[in-house]
Amino acid sequence: MTAGSSTVLPCIWVRAGVLSYRLCDRDYQCERCELFRALHDDPRPWRRPAAGDEHEVQRYVARMLAGCTIDLDRWYGSSHVWVEELGDGQLCLGVDDLARRVLHPVAEWLLPDVGTTLHVGEVGLWARRSGLTVPLASPAGGTVTAVSPGRAAGGAGPAVTLADVPTGWSADGRLMRGEDALRWFVDQIGVLRQRITEACESLEPADVGPCLADGGEPDTDVGRVLGAAGLAALVREVFPVQI
After folding, report:
1. Which of residues 119 and 215 earns the better pLDDT score?
2. Predicted pLDDT of residue 11
3. Nearest to 90 by CA among 148, 168, 142, 37
4. Cβ-proximal residues to 140 (8 Å cutoff; 6+ apart), any chain
5. Is the distance from CB of 188 to CB of 238 less than 8 angstroms?
6. Contacts of 108 by beta carbon, 8 Å cutoff, 6+ apart
7. Whether residue 145 has pLDDT greater than 70
């Protein structure tokens, strides 16, 4: 593919299943793409890992985010709760893939009762994993008409259906969609990768364990890589609501 082509190209990360939809505007010159550097290579704003660790950090992050998607047609709140319009004035709320990877393994999703009124910016649901309970703010308001807990330890996340949604809910400046959501998503991957890099720099290889080249599959429980204090610090960065 030559530079300057007018052909509309699907992003390589759509082909890879990382994004649900994105057009490439760089003629597949991926080395110039911020998203590509975040998901695959070493993005320039991030500090490089210590000697000998770079490949393993890349391998671990890639393994952890395998199959992780962001739907650019949805709205996203900064607590990683997305909003999808269902029609007839109803909305569906769910937790995005990146958040569920950071919190894995989730033992239980604590969801609001049917009939509860949710307000924008207030806690709408909780994620509970070993030693940690994380509140997630609702990016939209309305009355809860249905809930689905999903599979706590599996791939499907929780869902909450809202009705009686206030008019103009999507005009809230805190919501992100399309390119804005994508830039935020890339930044959040950067936070995750930096924390893993720091863990690899501060520990001896034998202490870091499953995330390094030990002959087995990397452990996708990021808490076992960062430790309890490191995971708690990551959660404070990634999920802005703290109770």
Report:
1. 119
2. 73
3. 142
4. 75, 77, 83, 91, 93, 118, 120, 162, 165, 169, 172, 175
5. yes
6. 127, 128, 149, 152
7. yes
d(CA 208, CA 202): 9
Question: What's the Cα-to-Cα distance from 193 to each of 85, 115, 189, 199, rounded to whole Å?
Answer: 32, 39, 6, 10
pLDDT tens digits for 83-97? 999 988 999 999 999
Packing angle between helix 178-202 and helix 54-64, nearest 10 degrees?
130
Phi, psi of 4 (to 5 degrees): 85, 5
HEC assignment per residue over 44-87: CCCCCCCCCCHHHHHHHHHHHCCCCCECCCCEECCCCEEEEEEE
| Phi, psi torsion values for 165, nearest 5 degrees | -80, 130
Counting beta carbons within 10 angstroms of the beta carbon of residue 54, is it exposed (0 to 12), middle (13 to 18) or buried (19 or more)?
Answer: middle
- The model scores a pTM over 0.70: yes
List, in sequence order, every residue forming a beta bridge with 91; answer none if it has no partner. Answer: 85, 162
Question: DSSP string spanning 102-159?
Answer: HHPSP-EEE-PPTTPEE-TTSEEEEEEETTEEEEEE-SS-EEEEEEE---TTSS---E
Q: Which of 191, 192, 169, 189 minimizes the C-alpha distance to 75?
A: 169
List of residues 6+ apart from 243 with CB closer than 8 A: 123, 135
**In 3-state terms, what secondary structure has residue 23?**
strand
